[in-house]
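Input structure tokens:
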């Protein structure tokens, strides 16, 4: 059974995009789906040189924790996850997300390499608090003790320019991929 024409077209475009990305110094370019409302294209730094990555330190109003995973949404926005208690405003031992204080969404978060108790390290980027399970549970008036103790996730939205500055060639490839995807849809 032969794949549908649009599937073959998308497969060919995908293979061409992969080859083009490799030719552009190993950069990986991703396009936003045609149905999405955003036209931003995330072009990430190679893993070996990325400054914002799992394990980087994240500072929020004086509190410090390490990043866990990198997420994207359907609009192409990029988020870095960390524990919601890392953005808490109370004591370091506060673990009840239904009762502990937390800064509001939109709070500035810095990504830092090499920081410690005696040194601030080097700022390598920034973002804003976009989601906190602690704030969500408080808004929903959650009371289950296990949920309050173990629902501990926050997401920081990272500005596209903080991830890497795409080259003109990467912009051109991303524009071509977006146009080709719209034509083949």
């Amino acid at each position: 059974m032969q794949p549908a024409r649009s599937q073959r077209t998308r497969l060919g475009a995908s293979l061409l995009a992969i080859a083009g990305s490799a030719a552009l110094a190993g950069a990986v370019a991703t396009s936003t789906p045609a149905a999405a409302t955003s036209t931003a294209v995330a072009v990430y730094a190679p893993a070996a040189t990325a400054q914002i990555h799992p394990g980087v330190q994240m500072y929020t109003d004086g509190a410090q924790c390490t990043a866990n995973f990198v997420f994207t949404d359907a609009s192409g926005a990029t988020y870095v996850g960390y524990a919601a208690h890392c953005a808490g405003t109370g004591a370091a031992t506060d673990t009840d997300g239904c009762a502990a204080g937390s800064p509001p969404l939109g709070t500035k978060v810095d990504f830092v390499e090499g920081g410690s108790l005696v040194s601030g390290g080097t700022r390598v980027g920034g973002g804003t608090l976009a989601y906190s399970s602690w704030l969500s549970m408080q808004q929903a008036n959650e009371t289950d003790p296990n949920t309050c103790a173990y629902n501990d996730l926050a997401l920081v939205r990272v500005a596209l320019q903080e991830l890497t500055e795409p080259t003109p060639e990467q912009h051109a490839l991303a524009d071509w991929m977006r146009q080709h995807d719209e034509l083949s849809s």
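The radius of gyration is 20 Å. The first strand starts at residue 28 and ends at 29.
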